[in-house]
Amino acid sequence: LAVTGVGSSSHESSSIIIFVAPPCAGKGTQSPNIVRALGIPHLSTGDMLRAAVAAKTTLGLQAKAEMEAGKLVAASVVNGIVQQRINEPDCAKGFLLDGYPRTIEQAKFLDEVLAAKGEAVTNVLEIQVPKKDLEICIDNRWISPSGRSYNAAFVGGNRPKSLPPGAVPVCN
């Protein structure tokens, strides 16, 4: 990936950030704080795929067919969905990518798409968590029907801020 210093792209106020961390490391907890502070959208690959499927876009229908067949969604479909999303007006000042790129080919594609707009990734953020804590978290992760995840173990005593006081995680 081509990574430049913050503000060094041709769009001086743009923040194009890639968030790297294993499952249960806290990306979902920290992303809202980052995007709120910077005024940029959080772009989760899973959310983008679900939105494309729900909107019945051409790429969304291709993704749906692949998922229903039990296959991984083709890189070209994921790339296309990401490219469409980052070209939307709310991404003009930047965005936080979560779950993309996952491969060298996707990173090269992202570089090309951004370069065509005179932009580049400004930061890569990595969260590192001890393996034993990740195992506890993954073993106790619950996913609600809405796709939101909760952790029954509350590693470190932290409750998800989105979970109302007194509420417990519920899975249907």
Q: Which helices and strands, and how do they pair?
A:
Blueprint: E1 15-20, H1 27-38, E2 42-44, H2 45-54, H3 58-68, H4 75-86, E3 94-98, H5 104-116, E4 123-126, H6 131-139, E5 141-143, E6 149-151
Parallel strand pairs: 1-3, 1-4, 2-3
Antiparallel strand pairs: 5-6
Question: Please, could you describe this protein's structure?
Answer:
The protein has 172 residues and is an alpha/beta fold. It is 39% helix and 14% strand. It is built from six helices and six strands, in the order E-H-E-H-H-H-E-H-E-H-E-E. It has helices at 27-38, 45-54, 58-68, 75-86, 104-116, 131-139, and strands spanning 15-20, 42-44, 94-98, 123-126, 141-143, 149-151. Strands 2-3-1-4 form a four-stranded parallel beta sheet, with helices on both faces. The protein has a two-stranded antiparallel ribbon with strand order 5-6. Strand 5 (141-143) and strand 6 form a beta hairpin. The longest helix is centred in the middle third of the chain and has 13 residues, at 104-116. The relative contact order is 0.22. Mean pLDDT is 83; it is low at 1-11.
Which overall shape is indicated by the principal axes computed on the Cα atoms?
globular
Overall pLDDT, averaged?
83
| Quantity of strands, as a count | 6
Task: Give the proportion of residues in helices.
Answer: 25-40%
Q: Return residue spans where pLDDT drops below 50 for at least 5 consecutive residues.
A: 1-11
Count the DSSP helices: 6
Question: How would you characterize the largest beta sheet?
Answer: 4 strands, parallel
Q: Looking across the biggest beta sheet, what order are the strands in?
A: 2-3-1-4
Order of helices and strands: EHEHHHEHEHEE
What distance lies between the first and last C-alpha atoms, to the nearest angstrom? Answer: 40 Å
Please give the radius of gyration in angstroms: 17 Å
Supply the helix-strand structural class: alpha/beta
Strand content: 5-15%
